[in-house]
Design brief:
By secondary structure, this protein is of the alpha+beta class. About 30% of the residues lie in helices and about 20% in strands. The strands form four sheets. Strands 4, 5, 6, 7, 13 and 14 form a six-stranded antiparallel β-sheet that branches. Strands 1-2-3 form a three-stranded antiparallel β-sheet. A hairpin with a 2-residue loop joins strand 13 and strand 14. Helix 1 packs antiparallel against helix 2 and helix 7 crosses helix 8. It is globular, with a radius of gyration of 22 Å.
Length: about 425
Amino acid sequence: MAKPVEEVSVDYTLANPDTLTKYKTAAQISHKVLETVTGWCVEGEKILTLCERGDRLLEEEIGKVYKGKKILKGISHPTTISPSSFITPYTPLASDPSDAETALKKGEAIKIQLGAQIDGLGTIVCHTILISAEKNKHDTIPDRDADLLLATHYANELLLRLMIPPGLLAGGGEDEKKKAAGQKAPSQAKITQLLEKVVKSYDCNLVENTTSWLFERNEIEGKKKIVLAPGEGHKGEGSPEIGEVWGVEMGVSLGSGKIKMLENRPTLHRRTTITYALKRPSSRQILSEIVKKFGTFPFSLRQLDDERVGKVGIVECVRSNVVRQYEVIADKDNAPVSRVFSTIALTKNGLTRLTAPPPLDLEQVKSSKKITDEEILRILEQPVARSTGAKSKNKKKKKKPAQKADEEEEEGDSSEED
């Protein structure tokens, strides 16, 4: 009698080097496509066309990796491009004529978000750019645009450092390390308070309910979350720990940061874990397609085989809570909003940015405003990862804390798989 085949259990934690490799492969694809889509974004281009081209490129790049292996892979977040005052990812439909004609406008701050997943291990990245922004005679970004980008950049850098478990990168003797490790992680109220100091230094505000989530396999909204500037009925839960992957979001507004729901059709959705016996054939058809093509990752209705049928069938799916729809949210004052999204891994060596927006050019983006709070400057000066590489023989010119905030983790990055 043949022995039953034992099911092989796969370790999807960061303790398995293959897990980090899959995350990094997905991240490389996300970065490559983001860079290409960014280059396409010029005045007059239609957002729908850009989103469609971005998704085709994602699928093309995903198809090049792990060929011939029985590994599920795909898009972890469709290409979305959000206009200036929009906060949430925006992905219009060809069957909605008015939205389909939405084009990029000169000078506006747009948010590009997308992502790839390998074996259910997803990475997402978001970057804010200015469309054909006019530069002054000194070749710098206009003042208020610069304020917005700088506030977002430094607030994001501060948040990343506040997410590192206490004592992880502590120096000194064993007693000092134990003392540092024994400290409590900052509360979410404290995190919001510090970040508000950063953005207010540039006369900006945090976007209400900006949320960072714990990432797990096939799940981008895990059991833990950090909610910045929480509105009524919203609160965070839990603190980051070693061995976890997080999706980290930073949203900053030139207005009040308060939000409002727009009348635009919600087109971004994600399947939940709730089961329900759908009544309509069109609803069952759409849910079946969602399960096969997207799993539990976000998708746009435009990615369905029949967009018009999808618009009908999705209604019961949402009403029955088997699918979640993401409302189209904007700044209450219609003020420009900047948003960035990074996927990070926390290991014994610190924080690794799996995906991250491109570094901000601090020579081009300048402001008369600056951060003066000593506590914040001290935190920004801290590394995000332990340096294990050889030190450079050439002494580098000392930089200001705020200027070197995003430059110090490169040496430690290569050792995260150890």
